[in-house]
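Appendix B. Worked example

We walk through a single record from start to finish. Start with the input: the chain for OmpA family outer membrane protein, Flavobacterium flevense, length 165.
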Amino acid sequence: MKKTFIFVLLTVTGLINAQAFKGKGDTKFDIAANIQNGGSGIRLSSDFGLGENISVGVLSSYLLSVSKDDLGNKPDFGDRIDLKARFNANLGNVFNIDEKVDIYPGLDLGLRNFGAHLGIRYFFTDGFGVVSEIGVPIAKYKPEATGFERLNNQFTFNIGASFNL
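Next comes the structure step. The output line below is what the pipeline stores for this chain.
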């Protein structure tokens, strides 16, 4: 029941609203595929504009496809999920790029590490766009992580869609 509730909550949250960053009061939601060593899954993020070029948000990812370990074990729910708080510097208008483009470097603090990310969004219309983001851990909470502890604690690549409903 707990897994179903979290999955439904994340899916509904991700489908509510998204748009290119326009400044204070702006909100965007992304749904993306999460690809990393040993697994792939789904990632949902939401960012809220605090100023002209600053936003904060939350991110959740869940690994759907995960490789078994050397003993044939599969990871449990806690090994597959990650939750992060984010801070972004939205630089699309700083670089004087097309207003449909948003480039955003940022920092994130999660259940497994403190990390950094770099992303770009391109909106075809006010309601639909694509997003791509890479993330790297800066400081791992368990530097000597082994087995499934390495999941959600490594370089990640995400590609997906943004919606404005």
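Two observations about the output. The chain has two helices and eight strands. The domain at 2-163 is CATH 2.40.160.20 (Porin).
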